[in-house]
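CORE FACILITY INTAKE
Project code: CF-77B
Contact: R.S. (postdoc)
Sample description: multi-component assembly, two entities in total
Requested service: structural model of the whole complex
Turnaround: standard
Below are the sequence entries exactly as provided by the requester. Do not edit them.
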Amino acid sequence: MKKLILGAAFLALASGAAAAQTVRLGTEGAYPPYNFINDAGQVDGFERELGDELCKRAGLTCEWVTNDWDSIIPNLQSGNYDVIIAGMSITDEREKVIDFSMNYIPPAASAYLALAPDVDVKTGVISAQVGTIQAGYVAESGATLLEFATPDETVAAVRNGEADAVFADKDYLAPIAAESNGELVLLAEEVALGGGVGLGIRESDKELKAKFDAAIKSMKCDGTLDPMIVKWFGESATTFGDAAKEGC
Amino acid sequence: MFPYCADPSSLEGLTWLSCYLTTGKHISFYWSFLIVLSLLAVTAPLALLFGFWGARAARSSILPLRMLGKGYSAMVRGVPDIVFFLFFVIALDQGLEWLFHQARCPDWTEPVRQGLEFKVCPEAKIPPGSAPQIWHQLYGFGLAVFTFAIVFGAFAANVLYGAMNAVPKAQLETAESYGMTAPQVFRRILMPQMWVYALPGLSNLWMILIKATPLLFLLGVQDIVYWARELGGAKTGAFDYPHPDWRLFYFIGLLVFYLCMTRLSEIVLGRLTLRLTQGQATMAGEAQRRAGR
C-alpha cells in the first residue's frame, strides 16, 4: 500500500514536472512552404506559425529542432524531441509505431512534376523522397522508383534528367512549377493519399496528444486554421471548410 | 547584415551577393567550419591519448591488460566506420540515459523499452528536455568527439605499438644494464625515439581524420556538409533570396577547404619529420648528420 501511494505521488510529481517542461518540436526544415530554414537560419513556414500558435493555446513552452527526414520517427521514439511537425501524412503504417494528433491539414492531393506534360508516370522513372507515402505509391504503381533523402534532391533529379518526374505533395510542387518559367510543369494526374497531415507523438505520451488535439480543435472551431492554410499554400489549397466546425 | 539589405527583392548584382552571403544562414555556415576545425583540434590529441594507452596496454606484461589493449584495437579496426558511427553513438547515448535512469528514478514503474520506444524518466534525459538547444548540440558534438577518438585511437594504438617495438632492443637492454628501472627506460629511451617510427602512420591517420569529418553530418551535427547542401539547394519565392540549384558551387567550396587543409598538414608534417629524425639512428637521421645539420 505504502509503495502504491508513493508511486502515485511520484507519478503526480512526474506529470507536474512534465507540464513545466519544454516540449521539443522536431521538423525537417527542408519542405517549403510546410517548413524550411529561412535566410536568418530560423525554422519558418506554415508549420512554424501553426506550431507556435498551438503551443500558445496549449500553454506549453516549445523549442524547435531540425532532424533529417529519414530518421525523424526513430529519433522521436528515442526521445530526442517530443513531437514531429513535418508535413507528415497520417497513414496506417505509421500509426503502428507512433500516434498522430487530429489532422491540421485535410487530405490533399499529391502531384507529378515533370519537364514535359506527356510523361508516362506508370512506366517512367519517378523520383520521390525516401520514406514518404508518395514513395510507397510509386513503388506499387509499376514505375521505377528513385529515392532521395531530401525533397530538394527529388526535384533536382528531374531537372538534370535523372528522373522523368517527381511525385510529392502538390502544395510543395506548385510554387516550384510556378517559378520555373515554364521549365517544369505539373501533370494533370493527381492522386489523393493519406489521411491528412497531423503531429506525430510517442504512443506513451497520451497526455501531450490530448493537449495538442484540443489546441487543433480550438483552431478549427474559431476558424483560424483555414486562413492560415490559405496564407501559406495559396487560394487553391484544400481547406477544412465547414467540416472544421463539426463537434464544436 | 548591412542596412541596404532590408528589401532583398530590389537588390541586384554584387549588392545582392554581398547581402546573400551575409544572411544568418550563411553565418551559421561559416561557423560550421569552426566546428570542423575544433573537432579536429579536440579529437586528434584525444585519439593519440587513447592510442598511447592502448599500445602500452598491448605491450604490458600483465595478461588481462594485454588482452584489453590488443582486443580494443583489433575490434574497433575490424568494424566498418559507418556501422560504428551509427550504432555506437546511439548505444552510448541510450546507455548513459539508462544509467542515469537507474540512479535517479528508482521508483519509476514503466519499462524503459516500450516496443520501439526508449523512454527514461525526464530527470534522466541528457541533456534535460528543458535545456536550451545549444546544450543538445554540444552534447551531440561531445558524443561525436568521443566516437571519433575511440575509432582513431584504435588505429593510433596499432601504429604506436609498432613504433614502440621498432626502437632497437639493444638500446633498451643497455639502459637496463646501467641500472634504470622499467619506467625510466620507457621514459628516457623508448618514448623519445618511438615518434620517428610512428610519424608516417600517425600522419596518415591525421589525413584520414580530416577527410572523415563529414561523418559528423551522419551524427546529426550541423557541419559544413549539412549547410552546403541546405544552402545550395534550389530556393523558391518562400525564401528572401530565391536561386536555382547551387549545390555545385558550395561543394566546390568544400573541396577547396579540404584540399587546403590537407596541403597545410603535409607541409607541417614534413617539417615535423625533419625535426624528429635529427640525431636518430635511422637512415634519415644519418643522412642529416652527413649533411652537417
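Facility notes:
- The first helix of chain B runs from residue 13 to 20.
- The first strand of chain B starts at residue 113 and ends at 114.
Invoice: internal transfer
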